[in-house]
Amino acid sequence: MGLLGYGAYVPAYRLGSESGVRGTRVVASFDEDATTMAVEAARGLTGHAPGSLWWASTSPPYLDKTNAAAVHAALRLPSTVPAADLIGSARSTFAGMRAAVASGGLVVAADVRVGKPGSADEKAGGDGAAALLFGDGDAIAEVLGMASETLEVLDRWRDPQRTTGEQWEERFGFEQYADLVRGVAARLLDEAGLTEADHVVVTSGNSGITKRAGALVKGALSSSSSPIGFSGAVDPLLGLAAVLDVAGPGETVLVLSAVDGCDGLLLRTTDLLASRRAARSVADQLAGGRPIPHLTYLSWRGLVERELPRRPEPDRPAGPPSARAGTWKFGFAGSRCTACGFVHVPPLRVCRSCSAVDAMETVSLADQTGTVATFTIDRLAFSPSPPVIDVVVDFDGGGRTTLEIADADPERVDVGAEVSLVFRRLFTAGNVHNYFWKAKVL
Amino acid sequence: MASKGIKDAVAIVGMGCTRFGERWESSTDDLLLDAVGEALGSAGVQRDDVDAYWLGTLASGQSGLTLSRPLGIDYKPVTRVENYCATGSEAFRNACYAVASGAYDRVMAVGVEKLKDSGFSGLLRADPPSDGTAAELSLTAPAAFSLLDPAYTSKYGVDPIAMREAMTHVAWKNHVNGARNPKAQFRKEVSRETIEGAPKVAGRLGIFDCSGVSDGAAAALIVRAEDAYDYTDRPIFVKALSLAAGPMRGGLDPAYDFTTFPEVVHSAADAYAQAGITDPRSELSLAEVHDCFTPTEIVLMEDLGFADRGQAWTDVLGGDFDADGRLAVNVDGGLKSFGHPVGASGLRMLYEAWLQLRGDAGPRQLADPRLALTHNLGGRPGGCVSFVSVVGNERG
What we know:
CATH topology of the largest domain in chain B: Peroxisomal Thiolase, Chain A, domain 1
Largest sheet of chain B: 10 strands, mixed
Largest sheet of chain A: 10 strands, mixed
Oligomer: heterodimer
Helix content of chain B: 25-40%
Number of helices of chain A: 12
Number of helices of chain B: 13
Strand order of the largest sheet of chain B: 3-2-4-7-1-8-12-11-9-10
């Protein structure tokens, strides 16, 4: 069993110094959540269908409903692939990783970390997603070992009804965790017959641990922590992804996550890594990004209420039509007329070109690119973050539809612009999240 | 088109139309009573002499009871119809066919809409439960129609500044016309600077590029053409009624370029064939068209055959469709200035045709009009229903 692939997703927006943040704080857009970002992180990994899907998050969009099912649908995985949520604390990720390693599965972690305005969590947290695919076959890294220590400790906690959490004095948590981190590292290295790892990633919700990561367990080539600050369940996977973006062949990577104990994973990269790195490195994604005003950010998180256009809120998506539209709504599948080739987005039964009836085949367009035929900026439409920019997209290979633009920068939208599709949450109504696809300017 | 039409089979012998606008003081019931009462009075007919009713409303009520209750109609057939913004025309079309069929002697078509009670801007949609993916759920009407503007300028190489001036001319003209109409929502001329400087709603459309959101009602009494002179010495005769519902191909087909409404082209060709019109530019005396947004009116001039392709913008700027131009378009102010209470609008267009063809249009009366066209559209570029009628003051 080895690591077959990895992916990371860093959202486009950055809180800047205007909000008291030093450097840049990575924030998910208003239409992103732990489900949509998980899809973006894992999209490139499904050439090899995983045996299972494990979705980890501290910010689940739903309870009582399996968030992983929407990820499963958007990734267009076979229905026989089990998908489950691991939610609550950042430690869930390692539980998912153990299950994925055991069964040849996909573990994906995603989080929108919210802090009270002015808090350390607001300044030093981060939103994002990352995924690891394990399985038999040509691995980019072999799993040398996993180890854990468990500790009941009052370091970080959160009322389930709230989006912002609390923390004890960080020095207390640091002292509780430090020996566990050293201990798990030592066990893993001993079992593998190593004295040190080439790369060490130490992540934790306790900033005392992450600040002293290099001192606690040092890597021969690199010592690092989360690339975007504490990103909840995403932390260890994102830290690992950043290392895999640059690691050489045959190098060992030790990932340690200190959350209510400590979990560790030891990997050794293979010669295949260089040719199978993620399409966009964490560093590249971090280098991009657009500033977002603090007030807009607060409105996105529901921490301030903004005046919206004088339009009714949309109706919640209904269960039966959404179920019937599964491959369209979640998988962006259209229909292609087998008689004349005309592509219909959304799928239709009667061909708009040759009038053939029920002569359609399903065609997935989720990974298709297209060009903007025309567009408009709608200042009247309801949106959690007006204005809406709508584009008419003509897909390469056929098909046209009208979509909203994601991460809209009006300056960059123009007729002829090339777009790809991203999975987003259009709005939430009646406590139902309306997941669908948007166009993103390339 | 295989429609045979009912040219000169039926006539309008009475009409009524309320003042359009923010009618805070009037309920849907009040508006219906006022419009129906005026229509009956103009024909000298009593309520109980009407054999059947067709009521058009998009969202101000459901079923025929919406009309039978306020009027107290005793056990007569009342049919409620809905066809987006062409709803009023659709009530009229079906009512005409009922008389032409011989089923009834006297029928009434009524349209009403009470938009201003909701507290929201623009139109509200009552959509069935859905999967939440349709673009129409979020894209508002002004946004959908704003797509015409950049598409048109790019296809025909029109300077966007000139196109903006043409859009402004449409709004300016329709406000000039509405200022002369006591029943219009906006009875004020508006300067070009004000129109162009207005806050943007969608794309390059500002608030003055959008039709008035209003309350109102209108009604028409329809009888067999041979009976028309029993009611009035100046009836108007129905020459053509056409409706085309599109397959909504434009939103799916990369070949569609957002510079035309194929539904309008089809319905116009059908209506001209029914009416025996070969040259609408010279044969029509006036046209009431669906100027929901200013670029719509520009594109309609081409789809209805009033201007050559790619030329409407310059014809508009040249004043061709002003009240004193070669073909008066929306001489009553149109949706822009008269207002657009959805279910009433199609009948409001016919009301202006009625006034003009009878010589009752007061300060905006055109010289010796003979044939009038009304065009009413529901939906948006890429998929709509389009209605075209031709009415005249002489029976052929």
